[in-house]
Amino acid sequence: MPPRTSRQQFDSQAKHYNAQWNAWSGESLAWLLEKAGCDPSQKWLDVATGAGFTAAAFGPLVSEVTGLDVSEAMLDQARERARASGLANLVFQCGTAEELPFSPEAFDGVVCRLAAHHFLSVPRFLAEACRVLRPGGRLLIADTAEPDGAPEVDAWHNHVEALRDGSHVRNYTFAEWRALVTAAGFAIERLQEVCESVPITLQDWLEKGGCRGQAAGEVRRLFLEAPSEAVRAFSITPMPGGDIRFQWVRIGLSARKADG
Ligand SMILES: C[S@@+](CC[C@H](N)C(=O)[O-])C[C@H]1O[C@@H](n2cnc3c(N)ncnc32)[C@H](O)[C@@H]1O
User: Fold this and answer.
1) 193-221 residue pLDDT tens
2) With pLDDT > 90 as the criterion, what percentage of the chain qualifies?
3) Which end of the chain is flanked by fewer CB atoms within 10 Å, N or C?
4) Does 210 sit in the ligand 1 pocket, CB within 6 Å?
5) Interval 26-50 mean pLDDT
6) E strand spans, the chain
7) Interval between CA 67 and ligand 1 midpoint (Å)
8) Where are the domains of the chain?
9) Whose CA is nearest to atom 20 of ligand 1?
10) How many percent of the chain have pLDDT more than 70?
11) Can you tell me the distance from the alpha carbon of 197 to that of 250, in angstroms, rounded to the nearest whole number?
12) pLDDT score for 193
């Protein structure tokens, strides 16, 4: 697909970010909740909240969650989810990760799940996360990532992602995440692989990205001809009937802003 902004991509694909999509990312959400150490006095910011699954999971554990996203159509889904769940402490706002529209030290925690690979500047997002966190506040990130020291896997994976969704920027390696978060002034508490249990199927993944026709055919061909290292890393498995099953590598990262 040609390059698209995240707003264009997610405004047109919002309705596809449903329970099936959330199921592909269930362990990431559980990992974030476990590492968050939420308490009922806290205010959290969910950056790139999308359809609000992460905000809705944090809501019952804290005093307030603000969900920020660049796509109004995704925010509509998030507001509907909050209404349906009876969660009155979720607020949603339009804005970008690279320029957070909040005062310094406004939040106890910042969380961002499966979105940073769309950001035009992760260093800018991390600087902004640091600014809006109180001293000692926690940053939690889960995202699709590349294994370290595997340039062929990295190139193949980022290429198929960009073909499928023109707003994809980059899945970073574990080493890149470590360097980026450290350079932003955070102390890393945990950085590890998080294994998802529900495999993704190629046809569903293409549909969620709005990838059809020639581009979809090209992505399918690249999966069938994937380098053996990528086949191993992502458990790429052709299924009877022609679809293909796989699992992306996910990183879980927990870090703290310096105290005082
Ligand atoms: C896959 S969805 C995120 C899902 C959500 N975080 C969750 O846990 O369910 C990716 C979201 O990132 C948003 N996004 C992409 N780039 C952004 C940016 N620079 N600033 C804010 N939101 C952005 C998109 O609009 C989209 O809603």
Assistant:
1) 999 999 999 999 999 999 999 999 999 99
2) 91
3) C
4) no
5) 97
6) 43-47, 64-69, 90-94, 107-113, 133-144, 186-194, 200-201, 237-238, 244-246, 250-257
7) 10
8) 6-148+170-197+248-257
9) 96
10) 99
11) 11
12) 98
| Mutation choice for ligand 1 from 77, 114, 121, 132, CB with most ligand atoms inside 8 A | 114
* Residue for token pair 């106890």: 108
Q: What is the value of pTM for the model shown?
A: 0.97
From the CA atom positions of the chain, what is the Rg in Å? 18
Q: Is the pLDDT of residue 2 over 70?
A: no
- For atom 25 of ligand 1, the residue with the nearest CA is 71
The four Cα atoms 22, 27, 28, 31 give a dihedral, to 10 degrees, of 140
CA of 216 to the centre of ligand 1 (A): 22
Which 8-state DSSP code applies to residue 172? Answer: P
- Residue range 6-148+170-197+248-257 forms a domain whose CATH class is alpha beta
Ligand 1 within 6 A of 58 CB? no
Helices (H) and strands (E) in the chain, counts: 11, 10
- Residue 82 pLDDT: 97
Tell whether ligand 1 has an atom less than 6 A from the beta carbon of residue 113.
yes
Share the mean pLDDT of the chain.
Answer: 96
**Mutational test site, ligand 1, from 11, 46, 70, max ligand atoms within 8 Å of CB:** 70
